[in-house]
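quick one, two chains, predict together pls
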Amino acid sequence: MHTRREVLQGLIVSLGGASLLSACGGVASVVSTPSGATSRFYTDRELVLVTRLSDLIIPRTETPGAVDVNVPGYIDSLMADWASADTQRTHRRALALVDERLNAAVNGDFVQAADGDAEVALIALDTAAFNGDSSLQGYRSCKGYITQSYFATEPGAVQELKWVAVPGRWDASVEIR
Amino acid sequence: MADFDAIVVGSGMSGGMSAKELTERGWKVLVLERGPEIIPERDYTDQLPPWQSPNLDNVAQAEIAEHYPKQYGGVAYAIKESTKHFWVKDDEHPYEEAPGTSYDWLRGYHTAGRSIMWSRQVYRLSDYDFEANQKENVAVDWPVRYADIKPWYEKVETFIGIAGSMENLPQLPDSVFQPAFELTDAEKSVKARIETTFQGRKVIPARVAHLTDATAEQRELGRSNCQARNQCHRGCTFKAYFSSLNATLPAAQRTGNLTMVHNAIVQSLEYDAVSNRVTGVRVIDAETNATRTYTARVLFLNASAIASAMILLQSTSEKYPNGLVNSSDQVGRNLMDHVSSGGAAGMLSGFENQIVYGRRPSGGIYIPRYANVTENDKPYTRGFGFQGGSSPLGNAGGQIAGIGRQFKESHRGTGPWRFNILAFGEQLPNPENRVTLHRTRRDKWGNPLALFHVTYGENEIRMQAEARKDAVAMLQAAGCTGITSSGSDLSKPGNRIHEMGSARMGRDPATSVLNGWCQAHDVPNLFITDGSFMTSSACQNPSLTYMAFSARAADYATTLMQQGAF
């Protein structure tokens, strides 16, 4: 597995979907945008933006992060295979607005901003989105795609959520120690 | 010489039970299923982990628009990439709605019908329900009372397996129970606070058709206890929840008396005016369009309240020009469902250090009807039960604030809990609410399309408005914060998928189609034991009642057969 820094640096230098998808290794088994392929829906700019958002929203911790498991590739195929033309347009418009707002917040290019600056900008945007800024509904939707896609991957489900295929029993009250 | 002792039309919830009860009494039975065969090893998808379902298990939006606009609009939560094959394609199975009305006809055409996809909540009716029409002078009186059906509830419950708790409530008699799914601590807290604040209201574990202590008979049929996976809408390879395919059809099969034919769409019933008997059914093969007739001494219609009514309406003769056994003109009328709208959700604090293990398969809590039972100050008649439950907010699909490690780890199931309830209310019978045959439009097999004309009355509208207020008041009493209530729109007729009443039972042949044994007043060798027979809807989920009446009718038909009636 590449380090998170390697992935992001490669991404920023290339601004190319092929590099990104190759670097991520296609961990999520259902991603139909395969390793090494170019994106089927996203433009280069959209792909790097979704990748930066994914990395900040669900970073690598003791478990793989969203970029490690190729969430951007997953959403790329989601948009190509599942989304209607209306949904595709809505998603594109949302990304354009998020790009604009975050660039303004960092006073430059959000995807190339230092981690700290990018985090501050995204936290402010996220806070506004969940506190009544209806113009950011598209951001919330995008965050939903990232989150749901991450937890639908095997590492997200098994390593992070501790998903078990056959629990075998229902325990209604488990104390967290 | 008839081909079979009995033909059962439909292999779903009630058809499976009819077939089981008849074959176990020695009848040679043909079950006709209009859809293809479900083979669990091939068609169940419950073993798929999340990462093997494409597109987050969502059906492509263009595919929904083309094939599932009605089905998906009605039950989006259940129609996934992994389950869409259990639902009909609307473009292949269209229907019509009268101007100014709308109806959700949500279906699955295959072995076991909707018993594959149902939500598995099961509750007995009581004499509050069986006596209501008579006491209120509504429609017609049920020709049965609770004591008549009680032993058949017990028989069916023992066979199918129900998880629940003994509560001793007169309006919701206890079933034969296996251990209930325990309430969460949040639900126990809600229960205590609601029951303290509202004397007479009870919060109980949902009663669900899942095995939690499988009997020897259930294990003999290959069934085992629920594994707490909550993959039920995909089928269950453990056969832990009840479906015809998991239980009644295998039980019928093992008698050696069952013949089952798939892709057999019943177009009409054959009627002999001289003997005044149904003699058989005319079917068309769904795949080849070949037609043929099967004959039998007795016929059980279990095609669903809508399809059974349509088959009767399509079966015209000189004696019954408006449809078989329709001398009362009640076939297709009084179509009922349950009505929802009143509901609320809120957040519960104090349980942040608790999680659950396993995935509870169905339901959580149930609040039995109290309106016009223990509280008699209501501006409406009848009542509703609330279904609901609690769960950690957990993975809310990314719809919670935050980014980074804290956001990521918040999905592990810790944090605030959410609690919600939704009312399922009774719909009064109304003869103007009906399904008829479309005059001109036909399906690809040449059968008339269903035309629905169903609207809600003032009682349903008023009841749900009050239910909404009650829901909010109970959540406030429970200590919920951030309470949101449902809008004022009622669920579409049909949307609860509890259609019933289209060939009601009653005491008078002039005003009802069936007698108290689900036997047609007009033609004695015809029984209808799907939801058609329901004289009123009550507010309880009805499948258990369909099965109990099916078992009772099969026993009665056997007595008549032994007496030489057929």
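The first helix of chain A runs from residue 4 to 14.
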